[in-house]
Amino acid sequence: MVLLSFGMALLLGACGKTPEVANQGNSAKGNGNAVNAGNEQANNAASNTASDPAQNTASGDADTMTFHAGNGDVQVPKNPKRIVDLTDFYTGYFLALGAKPVGIGDGAMNNPYFGGMLDGVADIGSDASPEKILGLKPDLIVTYAGTENIEQLERIAPVVAIEYGKKNDKDQMLDFGKLTGKETEAKQWVEQWEKKIAELKPRIQDAVGGKTVSILNPYAKGLYVFGHNYGRGGEIIYGEFGLKAPAEAQKAAIDSGTGWASISLEKLPEFAGDIIFTCPWSGDTSDPKIVYDSPIWQGLPAVKAGHVFQLNPKADTYNDPVSLDAQLDFIANSLLSAKS
Predict the structure, then answer these.
(1) Quick one: CATH architecture of 186-337?
(2) CA-to-CA distance for 340 and 337, rounded, in angstroms?
(3) Where is the Fe/B12 periplasmic-binding domain positioned along the sequence (predicted)?
């Protein structure tokens, strides 16, 4: 099995995987049988591949380059044709570049913004087995830095590990352009995106003025506050439009570099902006009305002014180029409607 850190478990909770994924991961770390079973499974799969070089697409491709990733310098094929993407949140980069993966996680598979773009792509689920990955004959595997047992994946194909949120969307797009041999397409997307932002930004800043903007998700223990690099429009709101978060949200979710913070309902007024983007947390089954119907929420200035905008919990958690393009109009129109 592939195990993730708590931070990645929180991230994956956004696409329908629950925060309990973190606990499952911790249990697996302490459960020798589970880990050993996963290692044995991967070793057997890798051994079978190594015994038949004709089946190993990566070893048969001499046209390689060095790519700097979160797991160091990796030798990868110059023009990978069979990418398996285990990240969910970076799948849209490959789709936007025209480098459609052969296998992706179920979170990405269920992203509404990817509709019509996934023909022929295999759903490898939320915890793909080595056999399933091997069966797709990948020449490149993309996963997160911090993924445990990554060496087992490396026995199947070259592995590029990504440090989530380290690069902004434009730099990440250019980086993936190099990885996939699609540098021209990457530059074109960045140019088109920057043109859209340049046209919208003055209008947005004029409409919003000095108002602050918050991104809030109710969950079982309170609320998540999101910042500039954790999806839900943060990249657009704070990064591209340069809008201000409330001081406490700025400190906890942006200046901290984490991209998110967890707060109690009682702390909400300190983190709530004049404009709020929100949606229920899809990582648990708690009732968001506990927050939305509370006197504290109902008393917020943004709520009273009608400046609360509902995000799509199945789609707007993503921050890849396809998702950002889809989110831009909604976010811009919402902000423009909040003009005093």
Answers:
(1) 3-Layer(aba) Sandwich (3.40)
(2) 9
(3) 82-339
